Recover the amino acids of this structure.
């Protein structure tokens, strides 16, 4: 990855461990969001409980990943299976926290990266399970990205950071939304039905706010390629048909993670963008 060389990161190794634990804790919270948000349940109370038997979960079983492994994926009370979303969101957030640490060291950028990625994990998992992207997450992420574009970045304006200033962020949000909205319009004219939901438009708007106008192609191209390939694979395997909508949120989320961590390498290698022009003002 380009960033850590550019920034000359010298974060002590033990901070990587802190990052992993923060990722696990945030992943645990993310798993809770994925369960409660689409079901309209309160986020603050009650504490964690088993959806099968409603028994509150003890602190030992609630330890991210370890609790799941110790109990071999089953509730300590009723023996019901613990849903795969919990270990998966904990594992993904821990890995993304490590990647954020590797890319940005112990910095505000690393924390922002982790929060951005955790929101993407939540959105991807909710879209897979329910086929929707809740406004509270997509719009929350959009506003957070616009707010963060105003924050000073350690690399300064000229640095190759994925988090741009307000000009790029606002343009990215508007164009991100408009691009998918127009795509959906064209799809509706050609095929007489929706190709995407408005949630996808809001999610790409949020990506634009975080990664800037120049970051959008680095989100859209990998997301579209991965989405098309897996759609064709599903049709080939007889698991889906052309008339059946496939949730695009997980592919957009993966595209966002790709653009954040590997976008600058791609841009520099392909000569798509000059080094300082990538983030712009
Ligand atoms: Zn139970």
């Amino acid at each position: 990855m380009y960033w850590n060389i550019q920034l000359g990161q010298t974060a002590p190794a033990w901070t990587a461990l802190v990052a992993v634990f923060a990722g696990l804790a945030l992943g645990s919270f993310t798993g809770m969001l994925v369960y409660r948000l689409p079901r309209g349940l309160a986020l603050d109370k009650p504490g964690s409980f088993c959806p099968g038997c409603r028994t509150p979960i003890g602190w030992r079983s609630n330890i991210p990943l370890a609790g799941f492994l110790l109990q071999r994926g089953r509730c300590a009370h009723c023996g019901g299976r613990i849903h795969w979303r919990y270990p998966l969101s904990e594992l993904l957030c821990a890995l993304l926290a490590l990647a954020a640490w590797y890319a940005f060291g112990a910095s505000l950028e690393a924390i922002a990266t982790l929060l951005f990625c955790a929101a993407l994990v939540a959105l991807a998992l909710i879209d897979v399970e329910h086929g929707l992207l809740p406004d509270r997450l997509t719009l929350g992420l959009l506003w957070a990205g616009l707010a963060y574009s105003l924050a000073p970045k350690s690399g300064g304006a000229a640095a190759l950071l994925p988090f741009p200033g307000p000009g790029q962020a606002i343009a990215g949000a508007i164009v991100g939304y408009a691009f998918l909205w127009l795509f959906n319009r064209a799809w509706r004219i050609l095929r007489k039905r929706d190709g995407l939901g408005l949630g996808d438009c809001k999610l790409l708007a949020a990506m634009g706010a975080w990664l800037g106008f120049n970051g959008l192609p680095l989100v859209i191209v990998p997301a579209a390629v991965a989405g098309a390939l897996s759609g064709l694979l599903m049709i080939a395997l007889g698991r889906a048909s052309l008339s059946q909508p496939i949730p695009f949120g997980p592919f957009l989320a993966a595209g966002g993670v790709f653009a954040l961590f590997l976008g600058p390498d791609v841009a520099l290698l392909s000569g798509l963008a000059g080094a300082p022009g990538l983030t712009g003002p």
